[in-house]
From TrEMBL, chains A, B:
This is Aminotransferase. Its EC number is 2.6.1.-. One of its GO terms (molecular function) is pyridoxal phosphate binding. Keywords: Aminotransferase, Transferase. It is an enzyme of class 2 (transferase). It comes from Acetitomaculum ruminis DSM 5522. InterPro entries: Aminotransferase_I/II_large, NHTrfase_class1_PyrdxlP-BS, PyrdxlP-dep_Trfase, PyrdxlP-dep_Trfase_major, PyrdxlP-dep_Trfase_small.
Length: 399, 399
């Protein structure tokens, strides 16, 4: 038993069965109590459909374009026309100066991050991430035998802990991965934060005689509320690479479509571009799905109905804080980050389950003592959960 | 310069520039002589469009299915209904006994092979392949720090060299990758071949106390001519896993859609299934593209117009052999494998170029002295190339 899959995968399958157990438990609860009586805030899956322009674009393209070209191979980097339109779109929005050679289409952001990590990382090098962080970063890093270095959370405002960051950069540091708007906190990294990170990396790479790349994971870039702006990282540091996904902005997570940005200003830009194109091929992506490439290029100015998420956000934030819970005010993504009253997320998750509320403990994000509430759920789920959250608050004598 | 991408990728980018140079030269020749006067047999890209049922299915699904479910996340393994229909289809066709748990949807065959390799391979283990072989296998193997062991070609009929195979199996052998119909020869491995391979693996795995998996790479399974049958490998060896792609059968190479088959009979079947599902996630595929999953499940009984390839095959085979060239008779795929008269493929490729004929030397497939002719080109290209091939034959005094 178990002697034949790889040792690394054996470890992962063991870890994975815990997640699966939770998922199965949720399904069992829905069966037992009725789906409408279970408040499942555990999954970060869009619940707003794609804007109508997406399906309109599919119909239009399938009816009017040459089928051989539409479903055929193109350059591993993606259709030139699509990449060119994306470059123009970014330039217009952020005042950058990209062209199609700076854009490589990817199988979502997860595909893009793996392509960049494969291109950049030698075994034993280090990837720095700021807690709380998306736990898959650990696997993506281990895929290339590099080591993830976690900077402990700054629980004041969940901007990165800059002091510890500066201390933990070594001669082995190759990549700093950032994620803003952040999963799991919903916090947007400020311009000040990006300037600080950029300055420190310039100083440290000079000190060590190395180049250090920022990889900015941006699936939630378009999901921001009010008049918040998400600064574009390539403007603050020359060795900044971007991984974007349309999964959330267009509610297309199943279609696996995104892109990476490799600016000309980056050191070894040509090598990174060529490397990323080859990595796209040899990791088995070959190219990102062809029809959907063309679809997103026609929907760059569209967005899923983020007003819906915003209203969920405001209802939950106001209610939970009024019950006495301490929450980070989220400016983006669809997550609320809640401090557990007794500083024990495992215990709190268990207690919440008594009220049919399903949450994810943030120990798995490198930030124990907090829980993530994914509010990409129906309005009904949000509204019906409020009395239950209130009971939960009472159990902890918060109100 | 060049100090910042990974050492492995640096090596690949150097190798890749040779391929790019050839591709660029082809484009230059087309510009110089006119596209119709260049006979480009170098690329294995389908040139027959997808059957009309594919676009009909897209329109039907987009108009009638729930958009949130259609473009949303599903299990990393793919939609259960799609996997179930594929299992039924295989069972009906090959008398197997699969269900949806045996099928995992993948990003093409390249994605599927990487998922299986990631699941199975520890660093230092060995993957055996039979020359001539698809050269990307080397990169897929190196992705997981395993070593590719190449069995030299049997140039009599291009069935695998069974004797050398038996000798080269070691305690480190974890995977034997086979590819039938074969790229680059077009040869279909016979039932006798599969029986021999199975018997040897049973013997050797007992001898070494190991399990050895066959991974069958099958993008060309449906592209066979006449009444040739491609035996289904899981019927001949219990530890046989299949990687399938719809790229060629439905002419959808750009859409990146395929599946892997993990039979219950395989040792550690449950672990491999779970491992492969996790590998799908952590390699960054997450799942294969959602809309296209549903499309292929509605087109399982359709095929691109392979009569077209068959006619190209017969025209070229008859003409080339009549000019005195020695060719393997291909039963499948869209490749013709030609022995170079002076046993020097690099020289022959160069000489052919004088006649505007573009071929790929088979040294890159581990079989020097041969060239691959990819006949997935227009009828006009085939017909207009014949007088040029005749001149080429004359230059070598073959006719």
């Amino acid at each position: 038993m178990g002697k034949m899959i790889s040792d690394k995968m054996k470890r992962y399958t063991q870890g994975n069965s815990a997640i699966r157990a939770m998922f199965e438990e949720g399904k069992q609860m829905a069966k037992k109590f009725g789906k409408e009586n279970v408040y499942d805030f555990s999954l970060g899956n869009p619940n707003v459909p794609a804007p109508k322009e997406v399906n309109e674009a599919i119909l239009d393209i399938v009816k009017n374009e040459n089928s051989l070209e539409l479903h055929g191979y193109m350059s591993n980097a993606g259709y030139e026309s699509v990449r060119s339109e994306i470059a123009d779109f970014i330039n217009k929005k952020h005042g950058t100066n990209f062209n199609e050679s700076n854009i490589i289409m990817t199988v979502g952001a997860a595909g893009g991050l793996n392509v960049l990590f494969k291109t950049l990382l030698n075994p034993g090098e280090e990837v720095i991430t700021f807690a709380p962080f998306f736990s898959e970063y650990r696997m993506y890093t281990e895929n290339y035998d590099a080591n993830l270095v976690v900077i402990s959370p700054n629980t004041v405002d969940f901007q990165p802990n800059i002091k510890e960051f500066e201390e933990k950069i070594t001669v082995k540091t190759k990549v700093v991965i950032i994620n803003s708007p952040n999963n799991p906190t919903g916090v947007v990294y400020s311009e000040e934060t990006l300037i600080s990170i950029g300055k420190i990396l310039e100083k440290k790479s000079k000190e060590f005689g190395t180049d250090i790349y920022i990889v900015s994971d941006e699936p939630y870039r378009e999901l921001v509320y009010g008049d918040i702006e998400v600064p574009y990282v390539t403007k603050y540091y020359k060795n900044a690479l971007v991984g974007y996904s349309f999964s959330k902005s267009l509610s297309l997570p199943g279609e696996r479509i995104g892109y990476i940005v490799i600016p000309d200003e980056a050191d070894d830009s040509e090598l990174i571009k060529n490397g990323a194109i080859i990595a796209t091929r040899i990791l088995g992506f070959v190219n990102s799905p062809s029809l959907i490439q063309k679809v997103v290029s026609k929907c760059l100015n569209c967005k899923a109905d983020i007003e819906f998420y915003d209203k969920n956000r405001r209802i939950l934030y106001e209610a939970l804080t009024s019950y006495g819970f301490e929450c980070t005010k989220p400016d983006g993504a669809f997550y609320l980050f809640l401090k557990t009253p007794n500083n024990d997320d495992a215990e709190f998750v268990k207690t919440a389950k008594k009220y049919n509320i399903l949450l994810v403990g943030a120990a798995s994000f490198g930030c124990p003592g907090y829980v993530r509430i994914a509010y990409c759920v129906s309005r009904q789920t949000v509204e019906n959960s409020l009395p239950k959250f209130k009971e939960l608050a009472k159990e902890y004598s918060l109100c």
